[in-house]
Amino acid sequence: MTHVLDPDAPAAANPPRREPPAPYRDVTRSDAAFRAFLHGLPGVDQVGAESRVAVLGTRSIKTTAKAWAIDTAISMVDLTTLEGADTPGRVRSLAAKARRPDPGDPTTPPVAAVCVYGDLAGVAKEALTGTGISVAAVATAFPSGRASRAVKLADVRDAVANGADEIDMVIDRGAFLAGRHLDVFDEIVAVKEACGDAHLKVILETGELVTLDNVRRASWLAMLAGGDFIKTSTGKVSPAATLPVCLVMLEAVRDFRAATGRQVGVKPAGGIRTTKDAIKHLVLVNEVAGPEWLSPDWFRFGASSLLNDLLLQRQKLRTGHYSGPDHVSVD
């Protein structure tokens, strides 16, 4: 079966429709069937979700475990700059920090990726060559997603051509909230095809989805469409990443793997600024999804200022005292 993704695009831009994993293929045959499936997912008890994250957030993390958690969190950071004033020089500076987060301590692990706008992906790629650090690029008319599908796909192809290893796309929240779930599904499928070998992170912009039930539905939609990661937010909308939202997304990836055998990653982004915040997320990952997700391959933090606090706390554990404010660079 084929499905026209963009009727004005050349034939090569309209690949055969990617089928979701069995036993979910039939649910994407029509909007009505897809809507019935998504609205048939178990409802989320918001009070229960908030209570659970509150309890998990009180876990006491001792010194050895804290040291492990800090290094693990550093290795999971997508070090990000997404400003209109970004320059090649700023991206190169960020890449240098990604490679050696603490120049005075070579035992500090590098971060997972540097995340930039697609037109600067080539600069990041050149600066990170040979490091194993990925280049992530936002695309699909980030952060609003308000553009034609042809423009969005061109945005993705341009970022990949510039050297992006990972694409962070935004879903059409208006279409999702209007109940046009199949339109959102087909757009993610088309973006996944345009990514080629690049991994796809699907940004749900959970602050605009209003309810945790919608977060669960959007998570399943994105995974069925082939997303490699589901991501909370662009960081441009408040609220961004919250622990209850992350809980629901972790439950979704856990249940999706149990149902299909395919593992999908999770990336909270926006508002995670302190080591305490990061550790709370790692506890949540371990308790909800399981230790298999405690890896940069399956869990990331989209952040800019978080890395500095992780470095300061790491220095405190290593030396017994906090360094001065000049110990970390100002991003």
Topology:
Blueprint: H1 31-39, H2 46-56, H3 63-75, E1 77-80, H4 88-99, E2 113-117, H5 121-128, E3 134-139, H6 149-161, E4 166-170, H7 173-177, H8 181-195, E5 199-203, H9 212-224, E6 229-231, H10 243-260, E7 265-267, H11 275-289, E8 301-303, H12 306-319
Parallel strand pairs: 1-2, 1-8, 2-3, 3-4, 4-5, 5-6, 6-7
The CATH architecture category equals Alpha-Beta Barrel
Computed over alpha carbons, the radius of gyration is 20 Å
Helix share bin: 40-55%
Q: Quote the distance from N terminus to C terminus.
A: 49 Å
Unreliable stretches: 1-17
| Average pLDDT | 92
Corresponding CATH superfamily: Aldolase class I
The level-1 CATH class = Alpha Beta
What's the β-strand tally? 8
How many distinct folded domains?
A: 1
Question: Spatial order of the strands in the main sheet?
Answer: 7-6-5-4-3-2-1-8
Counted by DSSP, the helix tally is 12
Biggest sheet features: 8 strands, parallel
Assign the CATH topology: TIM Barrel
H/E element sequence: HHHEHEHEHEHHEHEHEHEH
Instruction: Output the structural class.
Output: alpha/beta
What shape does the CA trace take?
Answer: globular
Percentage of residues in DSSP E strands: 5-15%
GO biological process, one term: carbohydrate catabolic process
InterPro entries: Aldolase_TIM, DeoC, DeoC/FbaB/LacD_aldolase
Pathway: Carbohydrate degradation; 2-deoxy-D-ribose 1-phosphate degradation; D-glyceraldehyde 3-phosphate and acetaldehyde from 2-deoxy-alpha-D-ribose 1-phosphate: step 2/2
Protein name: Deoxyribose-phosphate aldolase
